[in-house]
Amino acid sequence: MKQQTTVIGIIGAGRIGRLHAENNASFPNVRIKGISDLFADEIKEWALSIGIEKIVKDSEELLLDEEIEAIFVCSPTNTHAAIIKRAAKLGKHIFCEKPISFSIEETKEILEVVKKANVQFQVGFNRRFDRNFFKIQQMVKKGKIGSPHLLKITSRDPEPPPAEYVNKSGGLFFDMAIHDFDMARYLVNSEVVEVFATGANLIEPYIKEAGDIDTAITTLTFANGAIGVIDNSRKAVYGYDQRAEVFGEKGNLNCRNDQLTSVELSTSEGIRSDKLKNFFLERYKDAYIEEAKSFIECIQNGTPVLCNGYDGLKAEMIAEAAKQSYLQNRPVSIDQLNGNLLLL
Amino acid sequence: MKQQTTVIGIIGAGRIGRLHAENNASFPNVRIKGISDLFADEIKEWALSIGIEKIVKDSEELLLDEEIEAIFVCSPTNTHAAIIKRAAKLGKHIFCEKPISFSIEETKEILEVVKKANVQFQVGFNRRFDRNFFKIQQMVKKGKIGSPHLLKITSRDPEPPPAEYVNKSGGLFFDMAIHDFDMARYLVNSEVVEVFATGANLIEPYIKEAGDIDTAITTLTFANGAIGVIDNSRKAVYGYDQRAEVFGEKGNLNCRNDQLTSVELSTSEGIRSDKLKNFFLERYKDAYIEEAKSFIECIQNGTPVLCNGYDGLKAEMIAEAAKQSYLQNRPVSIDQLNGNLLLL
Amino acid sequence: MKQQTTVIGIIGAGRIGRLHAENNASFPNVRIKGISDLFADEIKEWALSIGIEKIVKDSEELLLDEEIEAIFVCSPTNTHAAIIKRAAKLGKHIFCEKPISFSIEETKEILEVVKKANVQFQVGFNRRFDRNFFKIQQMVKKGKIGSPHLLKITSRDPEPPPAEYVNKSGGLFFDMAIHDFDMARYLVNSEVVEVFATGANLIEPYIKEAGDIDTAITTLTFANGAIGVIDNSRKAVYGYDQRAEVFGEKGNLNCRNDQLTSVELSTSEGIRSDKLKNFFLERYKDAYIEEAKSFIECIQNGTPVLCNGYDGLKAEMIAEAAKQSYLQNRPVSIDQLNGNLLLL
Amino acid sequence: MKQQTTVIGIIGAGRIGRLHAENNASFPNVRIKGISDLFADEIKEWALSIGIEKIVKDSEELLLDEEIEAIFVCSPTNTHAAIIKRAAKLGKHIFCEKPISFSIEETKEILEVVKKANVQFQVGFNRRFDRNFFKIQQMVKKGKIGSPHLLKITSRDPEPPPAEYVNKSGGLFFDMAIHDFDMARYLVNSEVVEVFATGANLIEPYIKEAGDIDTAITTLTFANGAIGVIDNSRKAVYGYDQRAEVFGEKGNLNCRNDQLTSVELSTSEGIRSDKLKNFFLERYKDAYIEEAKSFIECIQNGTPVLCNGYDGLKAEMIAEAAKQSYLQNRPVSIDQLNGNLLLL
């Protein structure tokens, strides 16, 4: 049987854009026709070496290319809305890095346009494709622990982003915890209805100066009655700490962190082993591959993507509720968000 | 050098009273002179076999025995106040099972009497003497993780107590989570200043009918700026789940649960290992021994006990704040408790 | 129902004799009437504090005491033969520390006497009562891994014994690996038929000077076709390393070492945890209790002991084969031992 | 700086040839110009999809292609000698899958030719590039455990190869354990001087009928005084079991197996987790990438390969000694092999 090939374009060649490019380059069923970036000249040699023919500054050149069927949107968040709407209207399938936008209103608008255009739209919640979290979710769905009672997510970055990034990041809840809010819905298989968030500034003064926090504990209440908690820190000196646990009537599901190696050195001082994998590029290396593979398969088979625009919107709504809860020091229900949605 | 022997009496021969009796019986530096219980006849053979000579119904007989230097108070919580006050006035050192009482006012009164009597007073927060939690606390104190940022405690019982117990237990926060509230102060080495608690009824209807909850997530804010979270469940089918973790600027400290054995069976189905130890008597077997040893040593050496009345009071105050927070669905600061303290 | 009480005597109050005394003192169904030791005066205070009434120099006083039903033989190996024979003839049940003797001929003689006397005779292979090894053995017996193919035992002491001990120890195979030879038979549930041993002197010169080795790998062939290997070292600086693994047609069984605590400290340097438990008294603390409990139960119920004289003899025969194999650098079958059995 | 590109050809498109092709296709500094296979037609579509232009039946076409600088020899072992000699004479660098040949004499001849041609020659001992084993080796070299005393390798395949493969495999020692013999030299950093091997037929009758064994324990003595042991089985139903441990005067180094996920399901039945990764393609996925990357780097930088022809020869000599030891049931020294080297 002849294998189907999907022709794609990538918008943005920063860290995450290059990652998607290199992953797609290794898939036998994908051809990356073009990539666009403001600094097109600087990425030329790299892009050619992985077989991309069209290297341009203006994303419009990719959007207008009729051979290109799908677009990976890897440019800054403030460019997402315009690109997605344009791509949707031109009938391209869309993979969009998270968050869709910084405004729930704008995200809703985008989803409307995408819906009318009837194209595939996948949001980049890469952790859904991590082998461990995927397995936990599958086992919850299969009823291995009965009905879920408690969710626990630990999500700690190895080091805080620089001040300039923090300033335009949307804050800890929108930039970092948004992945955990998606993971919460995904693992418990139920919607979040209420949020209580406690935050602290314990790491870098410039984070406080930016009006942001660096440490947080967020309690979630789910529609199915379960309750959950997420703890976040911007600085875990031992590496990227990513754990999840779902506890239910018939048992508990949890997974370990990945260490650099599993080697143990036992001496008269005790037992020593490696730090955790450093950050998301290392830890979720395979998850990014599975995420892109899944998107391509859904395009080729016409099946629903595993992480759609609604998932993106919902995570943003939880982030907004968490932000308001933290600022007001009170529980905030997701319903209360209506009418007061602009974030920036 | 001649070894010192401390003569003790035990009030109450229920599960925990018998445990303390058997542990003390194995210490070369302790003589258990007497034990009192309403059902003195039924425990006679057992008590004789471990060398206790005086087996009585009325605790007063032990309290008036001049040879007895220290009393273990293992009777129901509602008898604590009278016994402790009487023992203190008679100059006996006191070991009291938790909680001291169900009323913060009453606990404060008791502590006043004990203070005036100038006797040793240790509260039975046995987990402080667990080798794992003790080590975490020591390492936090030594600065191994720098200043603490996040505390996480998981504390889940293997099965809920019967309805009759629930009814007079004081509720999940006072009966069960109180151990975790003490552990929180102990591990972070700072006072709790604010509490937010979310609860749920997911396990047994009779718990709800008793006006109690069976599942909870409690967020704590500490005086030193750290934040923490405790998750509780009355029913973990895989055994007694007891974990703690302290995260700070320089690292993370955590410990594993104890399984029945460390045997792994690897087959074509995967890898299987044992359930956790069943409940507190098994899991904290050694901790109970260390707890009693430490009390005896403090008496013999005149050094301060490692878990005193103030610790007992503080844990009760956090429990009260958690209860009010849950009932009112808002954060409650410990200071707000003043003036509104009676619980039952 | 009235509980049965067994009256025992202990011969030898060295490290292991005192251990058995303290353990038995805590059993409600045992009374230690007497203990004998050359240095009876020095142990008097200790013995009284755990309730032993008769503290004598001459073991004969215990053997002739008609109230004493069972004897724990904890004196040096070269005294075993005389004591056991005498005790058996006087109708006492016998618990004997390993090895029974240093001579297979002598051990055989002893077993004859014991058999004729029709008393219980248990050999002190304490590891059979370790919760982990016991569970592995049970699961092998239940067929959880089908027929066994491979056995692996790692057995490493934390530090070598002093020169004076080495000189009269019988050598690594008789003094140390003998426990592993018993464990091999126990876990595989089949007899050893051939042995090949490789040894080395890598640790302390005085061990070599004593004609002994400090490091060994011993390959075993079992009657059921399985093969196995034991690795021994006299010096594991990270603690007492005791592991076992049985691999078969349907799977693998293995267990972990016990660490002092399960606390992990994660820092920018990696993850650190505790050393292993230091040596046999710590690691097999519970196993020694179970071992003695089991012996007492077998006496009280008239059931066969779980580790009898034949087990002691067999382990000695494997040790002898290993020693000859090492000296001759060739495989030695257990059958070849006949006719050439004296060791010292 | 302009990146260097190495042009390679691959001989043989079986499982391992395709793996090397796909890995090299993803390297920005490698161009695969051609691949040869008897079934060239069948691999055409796959080869084109990863960008290989020249797909031929006869390896000679690749060898004569002047643009091709390096050859990956992935054809059956009996074709290695002719191809390697030809490639070497034509000045190509060579990567050769293990074993180099089935005859130590022939391997020696090949190494002579390669040496004269002065080309790079790397042997496919992929495990040297596994992150865990590599780390153990580095730490041994750095002296983290002082001088090595004991080596332990567990190496068990998930299922036996089919009868037709077994017949021409060279036997367990040459086909399977050869990787472990290389690992032994690599981890201990010393040559093997004597071998004792015990084997058994416990799995499939057709293995015995082929004159081969399916289970083995091999004891190794090293030039530096250390001793070691390898246990092999052709059938571990729980997955590909690959462990290594080096014990020395200052400590112990060991690593865990990789499971499919790290998810644990705790229920009233106990704790369950996943099987091990299935076989070498999954377990050593990253190691194969590192192996090829390292070969390309050595070519581009003119530095010595990390696993050369001498390493290939030495592993074969240990395999031969193991085979003879097993057949003769006696220890065989590597020196004894001189004069009696032909295996098939």
How would you describe this structure to a colleague?
The structure is a homotetramer. Chain A has about 350 residues and is of the alpha/beta class. Chain A has 2 domains: about 5-125 and about 285-305, NAD(P)-binding Rossmann-like Domain (Rossmann fold, 3-Layer(aba) Sandwich), CATH 3.40.50; about 130-280 and about 315-335, Dihydrodipicolinate Reductase, domain 2, CATH 3.30.360. In chain A, about 40% of the residues lie in helices and about 25% in strands. Chain A is built from 13 helices and 15 strands. Chain A has helices spanning about 15-25, 40-50, 60-65, 75-90, 105-115, 130-140, 165, 170-175, 175-190, 205-210, 280-285, 285-300, 310-330; strands at about 5-10, 30-35, 55, 70-75, 95, 120-125, 150-155, 190-200, 215-220, 225-235, 240-250, 250-255, 265, 270-275, 330-335. In chain A, strands 12-11-7-10-9-8-15 form a 7-stranded mixed sheet. A 6-stranded parallel sheet of chain A has the order 3-2-1-4-5-6, sandwiched between helices. In chain A, helix 5 links the parallel strand 5 (about 95) and strand 6 (about 120-125). Chain A is globular and about 55 Å long. In chain A, about 55% of the residues are buried. Chains A and B meet through strand 7, strand 8, strand 9 and strand 10 of A and strand 7, strand 8, strand 9 and strand 10 of B.
